[in-house]
Design goal:
CATH superfamily of the largest domain: Vaccinia Virus protein VP39
Distance between the termini: 49 Å
Number of domains: 2
Number of strands: 9
CATH topology of the largest domain: Rossmann fold
Number of helices: 9
Order of helices and strands: HHHHEEHEHEHEEHEHEE
CATH architecture of the largest domain: 3-Layer(aba) Sandwich
Helix content: 25-40%
Structural class: alpha/beta
Length: about 250
């Protein structure tokens, strides 16, 4: 936080601990400490967050990218899809998933959609910041993006409504619409699953991030829409955090 307030990198501070902190920097830093102690996320204070080796702009209007979501990106990059695949990121928020995929696979045609204009504004800034080709759409789930898609990726809200008050204070500072997944956390996930047969090209697939103990419910809902769970990926805590879906 001190490095961010000073406008230098952390390595510089570690290499030169004898440097005197300018008074104006100290004022900003102490203000940030007070706000951080009150539960405001450090990434909101800094205005950015690292994700998949890049720094992304974040605001209170978007979900702060979490390390678990990097597992979604890793899984998507490991799939055997066309070198010129059409990829849709549903509920893009800051755009961290879409931008990361576009940067790693420049020949993919990556599009992203979100129902929040404020979130899309942040995503647009991140697209420009990293110099990638990502087309952005405003709409509910995938309604604004015309199929077919080779790959659909999504980190939709999956926290059960009753658990929102139990989240860490700093997580509760994220937009409620980016967290609240309904009674069991899967309202929007089920809605997307029901739409995947329309969205996906033949032999297409989807990669979704989900919450703890939700994978069996997702598998059941997938079967009802003609899809199957092709792979379950555990995070470092052992939770089945990412699922890969394919048409049966």
């Amino acid at each position: 936080m001190l490095a961010a307030a000073w406008g230098v990198d952390e390595v510089t501070l570690r290499l030169h601990p004898e440097r005197k902190v300018p008074s104006e920097v100290e004022t900003i830093y102490r203000s940030w400490l007070e706000r951080r102690a009150a539960g405001e996320p450090a990434h909101h204070l800094k205005g950015s967050c690292p994700f998949w080796g890049r720094e992304f702009l974040v605001t209170p209007e978007v979900l702060v990218p979490r390390p678990e979501t990097e597992l979604l990106v890793q899984t998507a990059l490991e799939l055997a899809v066309s070198a010129t695949a059409r990829v849709l990121d549903v509920g893009t928020g800051s755009g961290c998933i879409a931008v990361s995929l576009a940067a790693e696979r420049p020949r993919w045609r990556v599009c992203a959609v979100d129902r929040s204009q404020a979130a899309l504004s942040v995503a647009h800034r991140n697209v420009e910041r990293h110099g990638v080709e990502v087309e952005l759409f405003l709409g509910d789930l995938a309604s604004a993006a015309a199929p077919p898609w080779d790959l659909v990726v999504a980190n939709l809200p999956y926290i059960p409504s009753g658990d929102l008050g139990k989240l860490p204070v700093e997580v509760q500072r994220d937009p409620p619409a980016a967290l609240d997944g309904g009674a069991d956390g899967l309202d929007l996930v089920r809605a997307l699953l029901a739409d995947l047969p329309r969205l996906l090209r033949v032999c297409g697939g989807a990669v979704l991030e989900i919450g703890e103990n939700q994978v069996d419910a997702v598998a059941t809902a997938a079967v009802e829409t003609g899809l199957a769970v092709a792979r379950r990926v555990r995070d470092t805590g052992g939770c089945e955090r990412v699922v890969v879906l394919q048409q049966r």
